[in-house]
Amino acid sequence: MIDVLIVDDHEMVRLGYSAYLSIQDDINVVGESENGQIGYEMALDLRPDIILMDLVMEVMDGIESTKAILKEWPEAKIIIVTSFIDDEKVYPALEAGAAGYMLKTSSANEIANAIRSTYKGERVLEPQVTDKMLERLTRKIPHFLHEDLTAREMEVLLLIAEGCSNQEIADQLFITLKTVKTHVSNILSKLEVDDRTQATIYAFKHDLVK
User: Fold this and answer.
1) Stated pTM of the model
2) Which terminus of the chain has a smaller tally of CB atoms within 10 A, N or C?
3) Domains of the chain listed by start with CATH number
């Protein structure tokens, strides 16, 4: 039997899950709690196999309760079951250590299957949550060419933008003229520009010059 603790501040939700799960041959509801604080205490006392945890509750919310439980009992398996699908709820819950994230729009049968999967050691995520995670992971972050410059090359670029000659750059940075020329060549290549003028325009365009 898979022992389950239900933590949710809505009595009808608790009763609904409890009624359905109790008729399953392999699931046993060992307790119900109306807030995260009591849920935390019951979890450590009962040590259920799975905890169904709501997110928004008074006294202690689901994320705080999840963190508190896992701090005292790292092996606990907690499935968040909530109505929220926004990033500020999903990611903090997963970062807190939740083993799964399901929505209350899921059917009771889907919740039961999530319990079974989590009990086996699998991570369960509502398809909408999986989609959001993939979207976040694949979201393109703008990459600027100057981010490839070394710290020294950035110094040289800023001096170029100030109108300094190679010799003046060498004098200011206490490096050889040959080294400056090498840096300038690398800068032009990395910024994909043809000459110092274009490099200067790039620096001003991207607000690199203070």
Assistant:
1) 0.63
2) C
3) 2-138 (3.40.50.2300), 145-205 (1.10.10.10)
Number of helices and strands in the chain (H, E): 10, 6
| 194 touches 188 (CB < 8 A) | yes
d(CA 123, CA 70): 16
pLDDT tens, position by position, 153-191? 999 999 999 999 999 999 999 999 999 999 999 999 999
Cα 177 from Cα 161, distance rounded (Å): 18
Tell me the longest C-alpha to C-alpha distance in the chain.
84
Percentage above 90 pLDDT, the chain: 75
**Contact 202/193 with Cβ under 8 angstroms?**
yes
Closest CA to 92 of 128, 58, 65, 119: 65
Closest CA to 28 of 53, 10, 54, 46: 46
Residue-by-residue DSSP string for 58-81: SSS-HHHHHHHHHHH-TT--EEEE
Tell me what pLDDT residue 138 has. Answer: 62
